[in-house]
Design brief:
219 residues, alpha+beta, 2 domains, five-stranded antiparallel β-sheet, two-stranded antiparallel sheet, 8 helices
Length: 219
């Protein structure tokens, strides 16, 4: 293959790579399952790479914060509008504030405390503890939950395997492919539909996240 052909192929691969990353970011914003994102791409992306792209994108748009809300880690200068697509998937769309008089977001740190009835079997129609807690404390979002998955994944021991065994479907795929080990301290994840479903699966276990940050100012 001539030098020009090598260059043309490299350029084509680079364009596909950028297009793939843009596609991953767009579908991730819409809440698509990890495996659906992978199957939708024209350019082959391994799941591990999709996880890295999603991580970088979610850190850049404040879906994931590396510092606690209110500590200067994003969102103070942005507004978020909840969007629902044709399939009922919900996401927050970030818009930068242009109003200099807009009030700064304030945050309330709240710990989810449960009594022993969380371990009791519920009937199908009973409301989950997590949903009831969010309903009682949220001011409409955006809200965050502290996740300590980085420490567990880096160790890759019994606790990490236990966490994955408690999850299923896209929630398991999402937790397993994301590079939580990039931050061995807690990260703060936007409470979206996927995270709510994940927390419901972890109810009644020691893996259940319990520290939440609710936006209580003008967001």
């Amino acid at each position: 293959m001539s030098g020009n052909k090598h260059f043309d192929k490299a350029l084509s691969d680079m364009k596909d790579n950028f297009a793939g990353r843009a596609g991953i970011a767009h579908l991730a914003d819409l809440g698509y399952p990890v495996l659906e994102i992978q199957s939708s791409l024209d350019f082959p992306f391994p799941l591990e790479k999709i996880g890295r792209v999603m991580w970088d994108h979610f850190v850049s748009n404040d879906t994931i914060l590396l510092k606690a809300p209110g500590s200067g880690a994003g969102r103070e200068n942005a507004s978020y509008v909840r969007k629902t697509d044709a399939y009922g998937r919900q996401s927050f769309i970030k818009t930068e504030n242009v109003d200099p008089d807009r009030k700064e977001t304030t945050w309330k740190k709240t710990v989810l405390r449960v009594d022993h009835d969380i371990f009791h079997i519920r009937s199908e129609g009973d409301e989950k503890v997590v949903r009831r807690f969010l309903k009682d404390n949220s001011h409409g979002g955006p809200d965050y939950v502290s996740l300590d998955f980085g420490r567990l994944k880096q160790r890759n021991g019994t606790e990490w395997m236990t966490l994955l065994s408690l999850l299923k479907g896209d929630e398991r795929d999402y937790v397993s492919v994301m590079p939580w080990e990039n931050s061995i301290t807690s990260v703060y994840h936007l409470v979206d539909d996927r995270i709510v479903r994940m927390m419901e699966m972890l109810e009644g276990t020691s893996m259940m996240p319990g520290v939440f940050y609710f936006a209580s100012g003008d967001v």
